[in-house]
Model the fold of this input.
Amino acid sequence: MAILAYYEALLRKKVQGAIFNGVGGIFLLIGTGFLAAALWMVLAEVRDAKFAATVMGFGFVALGFVAMGVGSIVSRMRIRHMPAPRARVGGSPMFQLLEGFLVGIDAGRRSRRR
Done:
């Protein structure tokens, strides 16, 4: 069960990183649109509202890079090893039988190695 918990946590971190990268990509697209419109306006006439559009474009691009950086950091974070959940005391007899069987197999394998 601990292996499944580890891979579940690993998948969760990768998905979070992908979400941040996706948001960063959206901000980059928005910023690129503003920068293209702003560049055209600045070339047409220097200063005023065009300057604001340029500043907004750079702001969106900066936000996009920040979000992508956070996504990269989040996806690279180490996963804490989570201990296996404790078994219920009054569990199903079939699960108890299976657990006893697996513990016996594991003990047999360990005794052969020595």
Summary: The chain has a mean pLDDT of 80. Residues 2-89 form one domain. The longest helix spans residues 2-44. Residues 17 and 73 are 8 Å apart (CA to CA).
